[in-house]
Amino acid sequence: MTTATAEKQMPKTMPYKRVLLKMSGEVLMGEKEFGLDSNTVNRVARDIKQVADMGIEVCVSVGAGNIFRGVSGAAEGMDRTQADYMGMLGIVINALALQSALEALKVETRVMSAIPMSAICEPYIRRKAMRHMEKGRVVIFAAGTGNPYFTSDTTAALRASEMNCNAILKGTKVDGVYTADPKKDPSAKRFDSISYMDVLTKDLRVMDATAISLARENNIPIVIFNVREEGNFARVMKGEGTFTTVTSK
Ligand code: GTP
Fold first, then answer.
1. Whose CA is nearest to atom 12 of ligand 1?
2. What does DSSP say about strands 222-226 and 244-247: parallel, antiparallel, or unpaired?
C-alpha cells in the first residue's frame, strides 16, 4: 500500500499526523558490540514502513553510539569538539544505512545533512524537508545540528520542533519511564504519562535537559517505547502496547 493511498484510510482516532522517531545508534547494532547489524537495520526499516503505510508522516533522527564505540579508543583524550564532529559523521553512516534498507522496501527516503556533503546527500533545508514530508517521504536527519556540544536527543527535539511534529517517538530498550531501574528494582513502576517538569526535577534521564526543555517549550509530547520489538512502533502509534508519554500535564 502506498503512503498516499494509506492516508485516506487513516483511522479518525489516530492522534498523530507527523512524528519524529529518535533512536540511539546502539539500536542499529543489534547484539553486536559496535557497528551496524543488517538484520536489525532491516527490521527497523520495516517498522518505519509500517507506520508510513498508516499515512503518518515520519522523520527520523538517529545517534551514532554504535559507530563511536568502535573509535572511542582513538577518540580518548581528544578535544570534545573533534570527537563530536566524528559523532556527526557516524550519524551520516547510520542514516545512509537506514536509507538503503528503506529504499529496498520501496519507501521513498531523503537523507538531509546538517553539514553539507552534497556528493552524498542533500543539505538540510527546513522548507525542503517539509515538502519531502508532505509528499510522504521519510526524511532522515543526519550530522546532528552540525554543531558540537549538542546531543542527538537535542537534535531530535530541534528537528521535531522545526517540522511541527505532533510527537517525538523515543525508541529505547525499555517500554517506558519507570520510578527506578526495573532491572535492579522489581518494585519499579512504569508511568503511563509524566510531565516534562517531573522528568527534569526527578532527573529521570528520558532525554537530556535541553531536549526536554525544547519539547516542552513547543508542546511536543515525547513517547518512550521499546523499539527493539518488531511492530512496536506501529502498535504505539495506534495507542496499543506499553509506553510512557511525557507531556505538560
Ligand atoms: P521534488 O522537488 O519533490 O521533486 O524532490 P526530489 O528530492 O525528488 O527532487 P530533487 O530533484 O531535489 O532530487 C532528486 C534526487 O536527488 C533525490 O534522490 C535527492 O535526494 C537527490 N538530491 C537532491 N539534492 C541533492 C544534493 O544536494 N546532494 C545529493 N547527493 N543528492 C541530492
1. 122
2. antiparallel
Please spell the DSSP secondary structure of 163-224, one letter per residue.
TT-SEEEEEESSSS-BSS-TTT-TT--B-SEEEHHHHHHTT--SS-HHHHHHHHHTT--EEE
32-42 tens-digit pLDDT: 999 999 999 99
Q: Which pTM was predicted?
A: 0.92
CATH number for the domain whose boundaries are 3-247 = 3.40.1160.10
Residue among 122, 103, 105, 101 nearest 113 (CA): 122
Show the ligand 1 pocket: residues with CB < 6 angstroms: 110, 118-123, 131, 135
Place of cell 545512509: 96
Q: DSSP letter at 124?
A: P
All three cell numbers of 225: 517505547
Q: Where are the domains of the chain?
A: 3-247
CB-count burial class (<10 Å; 0-12, 13-18, 19+) for 11: exposed
Residue range 142-191, pLDDT digits in tens: 999 999 999 999 999 999 999 999 999 999 999 999 998 888 899 999 99
Ligand 1 pocket: which of 122, 138, 141 to mutate (most atoms <8 Å of CB)?
A: 122
